[in-house]
C-alpha cells in the first residue's frame, strides 16, 4: 500500500489512477496569460467607451448652452430681461395661433418693440424650423428620449413632463443671470406683458 501511495504522490504532483495524468495542486487556480489580457482589454474598452460618452455629452451640453447664451444675449433688454414662450409642432402649423401671437406684437398698441425681446423655445425640430421662418430669436430646447411634438392635454403624463422640462429650462435661464417674463400664446397674456413692461420701466 505504501508503494501505491508513493506512486500516486511524486514531487508534489498528484497522479490520477484512472487517467494516468499528473496534476499540480496549483494548476486549477492559475489563469492563462491570454485570459488575463482579455479581461484587462475588455475593462479598458468599457472605460474608454464610458469616457467618450461623457465627453460627447459634455460637449453637446456646452454647445447647447453657448447657443442659448447667444439667443438670450441677442434678445435681452439692457437689464438682461427677455420674454419667453414655448412652441411645439402641434401649435406651429401655418396660420396657427403662433402666427396670430406674433402678429399681435406687430399690430398692437406700442407692442412692436417687444417682439425683438421675445425668445421662442421650440420643443421639437419642426417647431424650431417653423420658428426660424417667422422669428429671429429661436432656441431648440432638446429633450433626449421624449417626443414633445404632439398636443399634451392638461395633467396627462406628457403634459407633466413638458411642464417639468419647461421649469428646468427657466431655471437655466435664471442661472445664466437673465430675467424673464414667461408667457403662453394668448392675447390676454400679451396685454399683461405690455402692462408689466410699462410698470417695470416707470
Question: Can you characterise this structure?
Answer:
This protein is of the alpha/beta class. It folds into two domains: 30 residues, no CATH class; 166 residues, no CATH class. Helix content is 52%, strand content 13%. It has a four-stranded parallel sheet with strand order 6-5-4-7. The protein has a three-stranded antiparallel sheet with strand order 1-2-3. The radius of gyration is 33 Å and the shape is elongated.
Q: Please summarize the sheet with the most strands.
A: 4 strands, parallel
Count of DSSP E strands? 7
Residues in helices, as a percent range: 40-55%
Shape: elongated
Total helix count?
6
Query: Beta fraction of the residues?
Result: 5-15%
The stretches of 5 or more residues where confidence is low (pLDDT under 50) are 5-10, 56-60
What structural category characterises the helix and strand content? alpha/beta
Into how many domains do the coordinates divide? Answer: 2
Read across the widest sheet, the strand sequence of neighbours is 6-5-4-7
Query: Could you state the order of secondary-structure elements as H and E?
Result: HEEEHEHEHEHEH
- Kindly report the average pLDDT value: 74
Organism: Abeliophyllum distichum
Region (Disordered): 1-29
InterPro entries: At1g28695/At4g15970-like (IPR044821), Nucl-diP-sugar_transferase (IPR005069)
Protein name: Nucleotide-diphospho-sugar transferase family protein
Amino acid at each position: 500500500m505504501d508503494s501505491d501511495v508513493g506512486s500516486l504522490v511524486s514531487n508534489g504532483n498528484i497522479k490520477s489512477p484512472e487517467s494516468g495524468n499528473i496534476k499540480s495542486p496549483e494548476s486549477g487556480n492559475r489563469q492563462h496569460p491570454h485570459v488575463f489580457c482579455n479581461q484587462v482589454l475588455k475593462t479598458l474598452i468599457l472605460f474608454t467607451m464610458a469616457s467618450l460618452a461623457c465627453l460627447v455629452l459634455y460637449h453637446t451640453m456646452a454647445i447647447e448652452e453657448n447657443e442659448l447664451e447667444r439667443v438670450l444675449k441677442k434678445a435681452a433688454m439692457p437689464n438682461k430681461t427677455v420674454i419667453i414662450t414655448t412652441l411645439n409642432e402641434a401649435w406651429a402649423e401655418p396660420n396657427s395661433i403662433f402666427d396670430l401671437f406674433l402678429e399681435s406684437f406687430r399690430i398692437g398698441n406700442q407692442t412692436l418693440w417687444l417682439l425683438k425681446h421675445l425668445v421662442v423655445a421650440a420643443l421639437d425640430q419642426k417647431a424650431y424650423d417653423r420658428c426660424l421662418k417667422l422669428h429671429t430669436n429661436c432656441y431648440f430646447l432638446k429633450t433626449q428620449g421624449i417626443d414633445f411634438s404632439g398636443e399634451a392635454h392638461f395633467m396627462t403624463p406628457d403634459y407633466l413632463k413638458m411642464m417639468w422640462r419647461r421649469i428646468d429650462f427657466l431655471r437655466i435661464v435664471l442661472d445664466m443671470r437673465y430675467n424673464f417674463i414667461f408667457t403662453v400664446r394668448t392675447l390676454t397674456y400679451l396685454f399683461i406683458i405690455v402692462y408689466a413692461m410699462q410698470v417695470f420701466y416707470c
